[in-house]
DNA sequence: CGAAGTACGTACCCACGGTATGTAGGCGCG
DNA sequence: CGCGCCTACATACCGTGGGTACGTACTTCG
């Protein structure tokens, strides 16, 4: 548990009064330490005392900035999600072909999901701590949005015209698949090999999409086609 | 919070002494109440006091049967998982065609995952409360095993020979996809429609597999095929 | 330079998980 | 049949930890 984050000096942000700067810096310190401890020990096993001790402040300061433990967690959650989403966004830039875009996004997501903080805070504890509803709201405007974008472009490439709900469903499915896969990747004995396996599998599924697209298969079909 | 489970009489199990029967019945009562409360309020918001009150016993009894709150949760978890796994098993019986089997399993899973207790206890809180490792161990021998079985039969139908790891990877992906989908189905405004959408999407993906199988596409291919 | 409000610090409460110890009543043994 | 033992609980208690009420110093603005 390093105190490196604490020793950061107060940044000189122009246009902000000294009070605001100090305030922002302690708030930031709290979120930094909280992120570290939540990632290491999980939400339940991380006491507020240990957080404020790590940030060299008191509970008074914490409760001045946050309404409680859960709110602090949510701040951490948002930051981790935002970072992840940005990383994926960056990976998507410059790809116009939907299949390439999907592959790039896939790789980016696989990288992100191997970060301990993302797995622990977003995937593992997020739904339980925030409740599924709140979890979903948060996720909807960040990482899930990226997945949705990829899915849309792939579906568009297949020239399937799906209603919004179905697109969301596809995105949900892929998001869940990737989350679960990422979890198993990072806990695998050899994460590199495991990641390669995931990429192979997803690529294969995408190949299925591609073939279907090119043979002009209709969708939706609630039943399996009788014979192809 | 009904007390119906409490009013159950002590069952007469032949070959067991009265003491054992009473013991088993209080243990069962504890698990029953715990399942109910955990499902309703979640793990963290359910106090042991409320559980023992619901089961009409004291903490002494609880700590006689279980080593702690987490162990009690694990008992509940196992029971919910076992029930789910059994339901899916039943649905798989009588199907020999891999694609039909997959569809049947899919439907069964979609039903199971809409049970509040399964979503809350297994999907939402399971990983956070038990930790991912322990969660995985439990799941590996129940619901995940069912998914793996289905995936194997599908892959076999395609005459792809994959190593164990890759099969597991495919199963992981589908399991995650279904979990996530189920979560969104049960929180959708109209779960029936949402479930139909999920089925459409998965069916479509399976159709991709089928086409690939019939055109004899190779696997693994770490990159997307250049052109089909 | 003084009033006002922000950004904390301090002291305390109580809910809750866990433990240590007491005890009643079935069950085997003679 | 009765006696001791051990199981299956009940009771009383403790420590941790989230949350709160209130006090205070410093900063900003007039």
Runs of chain A with pLDDT <50, length 5+?
A: 1-9, 222-228
Oligomer: homodimer
Share of residues in helices of chain A: over 70%
Q: Compute the gyration radius of chain A: what is it?
A: 21 Å
What does it look like?
Two copies of one chain form a homodimer. The first copy, chain A, has eleven helices and no strands. In chain A, helix 5 runs antiparallel to helix 11. The N and C termini of chain A lie far apart (59 Å). Chains A and B meet through helix 5, helix 6, helix 7, helix 8 and helix 10 of A and helix 5, helix 6, helix 7, helix 8 and helix 10 of B. Chain B binds a DNA duplex (30 and 30 nucleotides) through helix 1 and helix 3.
Chain-wise SSE layout:
The structure is a homodimer of 228-residue chains.
Chain A: H1 18-41, H2 48-54, H3 59-65, H4 69-92, H5 98-112, H6 116-124, H7 126-130, H8 132-140, H9 143-157, H10 164-186, H11 191-214
Helix pairs in contact in A: 1-2, 1-4, 1-6, 4-5, 4-6, 4-9, 5-9, 5-10, 5-11, 9-10, 10-11
Chain B binds a DNA duplex (30 and 30 nucleotides) through helix 1 and helix 3.
Short recap of the structure:
The structure is a homodimer of 228-residue chains. The first copy, chain A, is mainly α and 228 residues long.
């Amino acid at each position: 548990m390093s105190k490196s984050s604490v020793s950061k000096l107060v940044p000189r942000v122009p246009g902000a009064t000294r009070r605001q700067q100090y305030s922002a810096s302690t708030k930031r310190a709290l979120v930094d330490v909280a992120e570290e401890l939540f990632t290491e020990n999980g939400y339940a096993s991380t006491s507020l005392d240990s957080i404020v001790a790590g940030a060299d402040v008191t509970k008074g300061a914490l409760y001045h900035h946050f309404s409680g433990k859960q709110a602090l967690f949510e701040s951490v959650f948002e930051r981790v999600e935002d970072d992840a989403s940005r990383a994926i966004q960056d990976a998507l830039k410059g790809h116009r072909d939907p299949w390439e875009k999907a592959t790039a996004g896939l790789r980016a997501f696989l990288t992100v999901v191997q970060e301990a903080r993302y797995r622990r805070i977003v995937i593992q504890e997020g739904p339980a701590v925030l409740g599924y509803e709140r979890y979903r709201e948060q996720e909807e405007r960040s990482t899930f949005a990226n997945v949705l974008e990829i899915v849309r472009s792939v579906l568009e490439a297949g020239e399937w015209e799906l209603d919004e709900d179905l697109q969301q469903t596809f995105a949900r499915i892929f998001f869940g698949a990737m989350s679960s896969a990422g979890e198993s990747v990072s806990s695998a004995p050899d994460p590199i090999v495991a990641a390669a396996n995931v990429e192979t599998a997803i690529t294969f599924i995408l190949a299925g999409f591609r073939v279907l697209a090119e043979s002009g298969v209709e969708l939706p079909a609630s039943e399996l086609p009788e014979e192809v």
